[in-house]
Request: fold
Amino acid sequence: AKAVALGEAMTDEFKEYQKQIVKNASALCDALINEGFRVVSGGTDNHLMLIDLRPFDITGKDFEKKLDEVYITVNKNAIPNDPQSPFITSGVRIGTPSVTTRGFKEDDCRKIAELITEIINKKEDAFDFVRAEVKKLIANANAAVNEAKKTAGEAKVAAADAQAAADAANAAVESIGDKADKSDVEAVSKAVEAKA
Reply:
């Protein structure tokens, strides 16, 4: 399992995924700050952020529960010098790996910040609206991921077809071998180049 994980971590796709996680976190963090939230560290340069909820007069435990009702997952988290107990907390921790895995991009994360703000401002009155918006975000991301997979699959098939044609032509050249004169080999080589 470790070898598989390390092998995956070496791929270009995984590196791009990690970069997207950080871009998404930055977009979400900046949007939350613009919406009036206080990020404990002032920003983020990794995959998560810690939000101080004291200005909104709601605990981390209560806010976690409200967001869970609208399909947004966060974790209650203590902030530095937290006046609440570790079981209640004055903050929430928000990360972007899970939404990035779903195919979300920066604009989607900015939309998440807007939806979080709806809940902080309107509480239960915004539940139905936010749930519907979260479902739309997920549906749009799923459609984009499926389209990307389809395009990647078509590219792989085309590459495999080209490789098969090249292999067949090379096999033909090898089978002619010594029996052919130079012009026959050149003609087959040109045909291989034309197909590739």
The beta strands are 38-39, 48-52, 75-77, 91-95.
